[in-house]
């Protein structure tokens, strides 16, 4: 007997609004076939959330730019966090969790970087600015459990064993 394809897949639907009919249809069809599904969206009450059995609410807030950069950046972080959780590599989740604080520190340095980072009339950047930037990617140890503040919500229990 051939095993079901749903044993080897995870279907992830990613949509800022959660309203894209094509993405919602694919996620709903996958769930109907027994595949585990995850919605990654900035709208927790969306059709995409309803179609999936698990949701990662981005919580990026309303977009103020046509390019949707804050949602896109948050989607990339959510994918990285999900990948780290599935891979189980020690330290990955802790390193990713440190990104918001590290970025906030970097943004606090913006006036100093602007003031000291350019040299002379050429306007070229000096190496001083880069050498004083906070470093991303440190790998402190972390546990594999989701923190209580995790944005991942589920309507079905998450099994720790493979399906």
Q: What letter string, H or E per element, gives the SSE order? A: EHEHEHHHHEEHE
Largest sheet: 4 strands, mixed
First-residue to last-residue Cα separation: 16 Å
Helix content: 25-40%
Strand order of the largest sheet: 1-2-3-6
Inertia-based shape: flat
How much is the radius of gyration in Å?
A: 20 Å
Average pLDDT? 75
Low-confidence stretches: 133-148, 156-163
The helix/strand class is alpha/beta
Helices, by number, come to: 7
Strand content: 5-15%
Task: Report the count of strand segments.
Answer: 6
Structural account:
The chain has helices at 21-32, 47-51, 69-87, 92-97, 99-108, 110-117, 127-131, and strands at residues 11-15, 37-41, 54-57, 118-119, 124-125, 152-154. It is α/β, with parallel strands linked by helices. The chain has a four-stranded mixed β-sheet with strand order 1-2-3-6, sandwiched between helices. Strands 4-5 form a two-stranded antiparallel ribbon. It has seven helices and six strands. The chain is flat and about 60 Å long.
């Amino acid at each position: 007997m051939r095993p079901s394809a749903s044993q080897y897949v995870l279907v992830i639907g990613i949509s800022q609004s959660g309203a894209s009919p094509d993405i919602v249809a694919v996620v709903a069809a996958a769930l109907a076939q027994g595949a585990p599904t995850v919605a990654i969206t900035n709208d927790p009450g969306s059709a995409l959330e309803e179609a999936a059995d698990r949701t990662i609410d981005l919580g990026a807030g309303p977009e103020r730019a046509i390019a949707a950069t804050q949602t896109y950046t948050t989607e990339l972080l959510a994918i990285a966090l999900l990948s780290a959780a599935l891979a189980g590599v020690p330290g990955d989740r802790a390193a990713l969790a440190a990104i918001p604080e590290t970025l906030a520190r970097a943004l606090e340095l913006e006036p100093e970087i602007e003031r000291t980072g350019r040299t002379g009339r050429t306007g070229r950047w000096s190496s001083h600015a880069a050498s004083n930037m906070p470093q991303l990617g440190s790998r402190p140890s972390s546990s594999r459990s989701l923190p209580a503040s995790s944005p991942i919500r589920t309507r079905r229990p998450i099994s720790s064993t493979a399906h």
